[in-house]
Specification:
The protein is α+β, with helices and mostly antiparallel strands. The protein has 14 helices and 6 strands. The relative contact order is 0.07.
């Protein structure tokens, strides 16, 4: 799970906290610190190991190395009730949220389980914010300090781990069914809906909690029906989901009591029962179960070839000494090279085939027209476009012939083969744009 340095530092900081604050501070502080020092770094280590098998990112490495310092700040913030130390943990959660956002940028928001795992990291930043508000003794609306602390716990526990667990469940399943997607969207949006309900409408809060309860029961049922490689892992995960089914009823009971102004369960009871059950009977066994199972990432590696040649500012400098001309150079040498079971060059229109095999035989004319509100920006950016030799289209609406030249491209860093560059010029001989293309000979498959 965690590496040895993380584990040792977490145990040390936990001992410091217990000896100095447990007898005097709210017990809820202990629960949030457990999430900070143990649960969160465990799942972070799991994802770090997963990313090392792919292309490792810089941010995940920074997060792993910065954890002991962030854990020190979190512990010291509780011991001294210091907003200054809490700022360190808050900044760390912002980096975690940035990590989740970059995951979504690289992977996309679909399938849904990718959005669940990426979105969970963004919620943790809200936990860091509420933690800072608690230590800074800042009054938030009419909330008491203990409510602010419980909100920090909420975003460090259910708002973070439940979407994360649900995303891992999506990896484990063969297909994302409509039932899985419906419950997933409710789980993902419920932290925001419940927060809005608590702040502005008790009725909406109760309604949101009821939807959340239904979604979590569906999560438990899906866990039971999903196949696992490890029997132990499935047992722990199903036990965790069943415990969650029970503890979420306490939340519904508390929300209904607040709506009807009847005290079914007190705050202190919520902290002890709801908090302890969530920590030790929901998150802990669920986390261990998912770490044992280690559901494989279903994201397919994109093997689209990317050039290792990069320009800084002036793209036209690429072609001065590194491009060689060849007569009758085409976008492809011959469409016949692409023949396969699902593609036949003979079925392609002769005009299209001629264009791909000899594009220089065609004439390109352009008439540029911008919307009125874009024209001032285009006018200001024209010197830059001219300098880099890209998008230098001009602003005249009069049609003009855009002459071109198709060349091969060689460079010591360019590991790809058959790279060609298509250069286009205006009537003055100024470069309008430059395309780099990779000609791949392959068998086309049906999509």
């Amino acid at each position: 799970m965690m590496n040895k340095w993380h584990l040792v530092s977490s145990l040390f900081f936990m001992c410091c906290f217990i000896t100095t604050r447990l007898m005097t501070g709210p017990v809820a502080e202990l629960f949030v610190l457990i999430a900070m020092l143990f649960f969160l770094p465990a799942i972070l280590s799991f994802l770090s190991k997963e990313e090392r098998e792919r292309k490792p990112g810089v941010l995940i490495g920074i997060l792993m190395k910065a954890f002991p310092l962030a854990a020190l700040c979190a512990t010291a913030a509780f011991i001294y009730h210091s907003a200054l130390f809490a700022t360190g943990w808050f900044l760390y959660t912002l980096l975690l949220a940035l990590y989740g956002f970059t995951r979504l940028l690289k992977r996309g928001i679909f399938p849904l389980h990718e959005l669940m795992t990426g979105g969970a990291w963004m919620y943790i930043a809200l936990g860091g914010l509420w933690f800072w508000l608690y230590t800074a003794d800042i009054q938030v609306m009419t909330f008491s300090p203990i409510i602010v602390l419980l909100t920090a716990i909420h975003f460090h526990y259910s708002a973070f781990f439940i979407p994360l667990f649900y995303g891992l469940l999506g990896r484990q399943r063969e297909k994302e069914t409509a039932l899985y997607k419906s419950a997933g969207w409710v789980i993902l949006l419920s932290p925001v809906m419940i927060a809005v309900g608590i702040s502005f409408s008790r009725l909406f809060d109760t309604f949101s909690v009821m939807l959340y309860v239904i979604a979590l029961y569906l999560y438990g049922i899906l866990c039971m029906k999903t196949r696992f490689r490890s029997t132990v892992a499935k047992g722990l995960i199903v036990f965790s989901s069943c415990a969650l089914m029970g503890t979420i009823l306490l939340s519904l009971l508390y929300s209904a009591g607040m709506l009807m102004r009847v005290s079914y369960i007190s705050i202190d009871q919520m902290i002890w029962f709801h908090g302890s059950i969530n920590a030790f009977f929901v998150i802990l066994p669920g986390l261990i179960g998912w770490l044992i199972e280690g559901p494989k990432d279903q994201l397919k590696q994109k093997d689209f070839p990317i050039s290792r040649v990069h320009g800084r500012f002036h793209l036209i400098s690429f072609q001065k000494e590194r491009m060689g001309d060849r007569e009758n150079l085409g976008l492809v040498d011959s469409l016949d090279d692409l023949n396969g079971t699902t593609f036949s060059a003979e079925r392609v229109s002769p005009v299209i085939r001629r264009f791909y095999e000899n594009p220089m035989a065609f004439t390109l004319k352009a008439a540029v027209c911008f919307h009125w509100w874009v024209r001032p920006f285009v006018f200001l950016l024209q010197p830059i476009f001219k300098k880099i030799g890209q998008l230098y289209l001009g602003t005249s609406r009069m049609p003009y012939e855009m002459k071109g030249r198709l060349t091969t491209f060689q460079h010591p860093k360019e590991g790809r083969k058959n790279v060609r560059a298509w250069n286009r010029y205006n009537e003055k001989g100024e470069q309008v744009f430059l395309h780099f293309m990779l000609i791949i000979t392959m068998r086309l498959r049906a999509i």
